[in-house]
Amino acid sequence: MLVVSDLHVRYGKVSAVTDIGLTVEPGRITLVLGANGAGKSTTLRTIAGLVEPTAGSIELDGESLLGVKAHRVVKRGISLVPEGRQVFASPSVAENLRIGGYSSNPEKRTRNTELAYDLFPILRERKDGPAGLLSGGEQQMLAFGRGLMSDPKYIMMDEPSMGLAPAIVDTVMGSVREIADRGLGVLMVEQNAEAGLLVADDVVVVNRGESVFSGSAEEARSHSSVVSAFLGEEALGA
Ligand SMILES: Nc1ncnc2c1ncn2[C@@H]1O[C@H](COP(=O)(O)OP(=O)(O)O)[C@@H](O)[C@H]1O
Ligand SMILES: [Mg+2]
Questions:
Q1: Distance from the alpha carbon of residue 112 to the mean position of ligand 1, in angstroms
Q2: In what order do the strands lie in the sheet with 63-64?
Q3: How far is the CA of 67 from the centre of ligand 1 (A)?
Q4: Of the candidates 198, 229, 194, 168, which has an alpha carbon nearest to the alpha carbon of residue 29?
């Protein structure tokens, strides 16, 4: 289990996260909803070891991750699919996947490459072409596949639906569900509540750096006023 408690993070004088708590369990999707600037990306980057928290705890299966460097966090089994995909444009699709699996042995790399191609057959079709020629949705699929290459137990996804057409969002969300059903714990951050709630099990709503709601996806849907109060009506497709 991945457990974050009382997380505080500052960038110099700016408090980005003032009190965020969440839990991610194997085989389940925890969805973090919050408006732009709420502290979602900072939370993921802190768990990934890219930013140091000023207070709070981050524990993976009972062991603290505080002070653990980013590449060691990956080794411990937590992978981050960053905001904006960040695929390498010139290298091929296959090369982008290989870069994601740099720390794995060849056997795992082959297995995870096949997993990515099975989840997203379009990546297999395009594997020898430059990643920069993929559409936005395909680049999100590639970023997701690349995140799976390190053989994670937990995968964190930062706004996977951003900028994608609704039909593509459904495909990406469907594959997020499939990955969780295979036993991974998923921590997904979204401004698009409607998209995230299609597949989430557990929901945390954050507002200005604080968790203000935490419950099952069913509770979040039935308390849609809670969600819309912090995200705006449009987040629920109203
Ligand atoms: N590198 C940074 N330096 C200074 N302030 C930052 C930095 N990154 C984010 N912030 C600030 O921290 C707050 C939370 O940002 P962020 O975690 O990116 O929110 P979200 O992902 O929910 O949109 C915002 O006020 C943002 O302006
Ligand atoms: Mg963000």
A1: 32
A2: 63-64, 55-60, 2-11, 14-24, 210-216, 202-207, 29-33, 185-190, 154-158, 78-81
A3: 21
A4: 198
* 121-157 pLDDT per residue, tens: 999 999 999 999 999 999 999 999 999 999 999 999 9
Q: Which ligand 1 atom is the nearest neighbour of the CA of 209?
A: 14
What would the pLDDT profile of 6-40 be if each residue is shown by its tens digit?
999 999 999 999 999 999 999 999 999 999 999 99
Residues framing ligand 1 (Cβ under 6 A): 11, 14, 16, 34, 36-42
**% of the chain at pLDDT higher than 90:** 82
Strand (E) or helix (H) holding 115: helix 106-119
Residue 69 CA to residue 58 CA, distance in Å, equals 13
Cβ neighbours, 10 Å, residue 150: 22
Q: Which two tokens stand for residue 32?
A: 């973090």
Q: How many CA atoms lie within 13 A of 231 on its CB side?
A: 29
Q: Give the CA angle between residues 83, 86, 88 to the nearest 5°.
A: 170
Distance (Å, whole) CA 182 – CA 78: 16
CA-nearest residue, atom 6 of ligand 1: 11
Q: How far apart are CA 196 and CA 34, in angstroms?
A: 11
CA–CA gap between residue 159 and residue 82 (Å, rounded): 8
Give the Cα separation of 62 and 165 in Å (integer): 39
Calculate ∠ Cα 140-159-50, nearest 5°.
95
Q: In whole angstroms, how far apart are CA 20 and each of 3, 82, 107, 223?
A: 11, 19, 38, 20
